[in-house]
Amino acid sequence: MLAGPTAVGKGTVAADIRRRYEQIWLSVSVTTRPARPGEENGVHYFFVDEAEFDELAATGQLLEWAVVHGRHRYGTPRAAVEQVLAEGRPALLEIDLQGARQVRQNMPDAFFVFLKPPSLDELVRRLVGRGTEDSEERARRLRTAEVEMAAESEFDVSIVNEDVRQATDELVSWMGLTPTNPVDSHR
After folding, report:
1. Which of 10, 30, 58, 148 is at a distance of 20 to 30 A from 93, taking alpha carbons?
2. Above 70 in pLDDT, residue 186?
3. Would strands 157-160 and 113-116 be described as parallel, antiparallel, or unpaired?
């Protein structure tokens, strides 16, 4: 399970894993937020409306879910996670702090990794640099990030995301896999 503050690069690390380590199954979260440019439904997220999300939550189809940044809801589809784990395959959930706490309650044997930025200044630079949020949304996300950063001690290990490839390989290593055998050979 991978969590960390907004703009730390969770999605970028997950995309690097998807590209280089096809043996690792990545959970695709459900969200009520609109897709960002380049995001594909069913690949990056399952984009649903509020009513669809309500139904998934009410019927127990989500392993965890939360309102993130006080605005949109995100959740992890339960059935897919349970199936992959039953098959004994390596799985990765990319979620927020609230979701990580719920997973800790539901799956206490899971391994929890906190992805952190090299510095708070770098986190701000990344958030502003991606240009996907207005100033009000950036301020909301930075307030949330401060709370999330303070929760680092709740995780089994922390990885500094200074270099995506290095952070990915460290995560893969913690998953018990050999990072020197990626799917591609683009070195």
Report:
1. 58
2. no
3. parallel
Distance of CA 6 to CAs 56, 133, 147, 166, 184, Å? 24, 11, 11, 19, 28
User: Could you say which architecture CATH assigns to the domain 2-174?
Assistant: 3-Layer(aba) Sandwich (3.40)
Tell me the pLDDT tens digit for each residue of 33-67.
Answer: 999 899 999 988 999 999 999 999 999 999 999 98
Q: Can you tell me which residue has the tokens 């503050």?
A: 5
Domain segments of the chain as ranges: 2-174
How far is 185 from 169, CA to CA, in rounded Å?
14
Element (H or E) spanning 63, and its range? strand 62-68
Q: Are strands 30-31 and 72-77 parallel, antiparallel or unpaired?
A: antiparallel
184 dihedral zone (left: phi>0; alpha: psi -120 to 50; beta) = beta
User: What is the rounded CA–CA span in Å between residue 96 and residue 137?
Assistant: 17
